[in-house]
Amino acid sequence: MLMRWLAVPALLAAMGGSALAGECAPLLQGSLPKLHAKETIDLCQRFAGKPLVVVNTASFCGFAPQFKGLEALYQRYQGEGLEVIGVPSNDFKQEAKDGAETAKVCYVNYGVTFTMTEPQHVRGADATHLFKVLAEQSSAPKWNFYKYVVDRQGRVIANFSSLTKPDNAEFLQAVEQALASKP
Fold first, then answer.
1. CA 144 to chain centre
2. Collapsing DSSP states into helix, strand and coil, what is residue 123?
3. Predicted model pTM
4. Which residues are marked as active site?
5. Do the beta carbons of residue 53 and residue 156 sit within 8 Å?
6. pLDDT above 60 (res 9)
């Protein structure tokens, strides 16, 4: 019996503190395919307890230069636990038809190192689960590069339009609020 009780803390430690999927915030339930890779991202396993910026992107949008600002934000706050999740989408008809082309825009043209997924639907009934929950907690994206700031408990604390650049003072204040949130 003693051996069983000793195994529980070891098992929890091995799981990185996020015990069971049932304990994961609704926002992070499920997985998404990583951009131009064979791996799938288990959102709960990868992002539970972390402050997030989630943004729907498009390769051929006039706001695409925001990739540079999002990467700078990620580099600035990554050491404090911030994660940025970019979700390409063709819902607004400005995304490449091919994941390789999307990857080139993100990784080569803009030097993105934060997490990017394969293109997903981000609006309406076909929206991926992540964006359905983001919409329930705030609003659906109105255009590409719509940004959500999520606290460590998986709750949207602010959302920002495409016009809001990643170095905007209010946006940065929301990111710092998410960083300061308790898991």
1. 14
2. coil
3. 0.88
4. 61
5. no
6. no
